[in-house]
Amino acid sequence: MSISDEHSRIISDKDKQVFSKLDEIEAEMMRVNFWSNNPPSFTVNNYLEAPSFELWLQCIFIPHAREAAGKGQYPERSQVGLMAMRQYNYHSFIEKAQPLLRLLSQFDKIIEGK
């Protein structure tokens, strides 16, 4: 797809839902102080290598998900909700993270068309 094709691409309902959910995720992260105003720069192969799950969401997941929505190109599956469950429910229950966990699980459902 050329740059001009990308700019003229019609945004689908799924794209709109993804952008909206990402906005909600970002707002919730800010609300519960999981958002960093000055995040470090890093590259990782998976979220377990990131300095924290929250920084991975902010610096890797959200930008890549926005890019995918901009192109209308999505993976068949998303497991960010499951990753969040591992972070916020398995080892210890983190009450303030529960709304974020729900938003991330909703994101997975949008991606998978459920």
Write a brief structural summary.
The chain has a single domain (12-112), classed as YqcC-like (de novo design (two linked rop proteins), Up-down Bundle), CATH 1.20.1440.40.
Task: Note the topology.
Layout: H1 3-8, H2 13-31, H3 53-71, H4 80-90, H5 98-112
Helix pairs in contact: 2-3, 2-5, 4-5
Written account of the structure:
With 114 residues, the chain is mainly α. It is 61% helix and 0% strand. It has one domain: YqcC-like (de novo design (two linked rop proteins)), CATH 1.20.1440.40. The chain has 5 helices and no strands. The two termini are 28 Å apart.
Let me know the number of strands. Answer: 0
> What portion of residues belong to β-strands?
under 5%
CATH topology: de novo design (two linked rop proteins)
Question: Order of SSEs, N→C?
Answer: HHHHH
Give the mean pLDDT: 91
CATH architecture: Up-down Bundle
Name the shape in a single word: globular
The percent range for helix content is 55-70%
Task: Please give the domain count.
Answer: 1
Q: What's the CATH H-level superfamily name?
A: YqcC-like
Spans of at least 5 consecutive residues with low confidence: 1-5
CATH class category label: Mainly Alpha
Number of helices: 5
Structural class: mainly alpha
Rg estimate, integer Å: 15 Å
Largest sheet: none
- Terminal residue distance: 28 Å
Characteristics of this structure?
114 residues; mainly alpha; de novo design (two linked rop proteins); 0% strand; globular; disordered N terminus
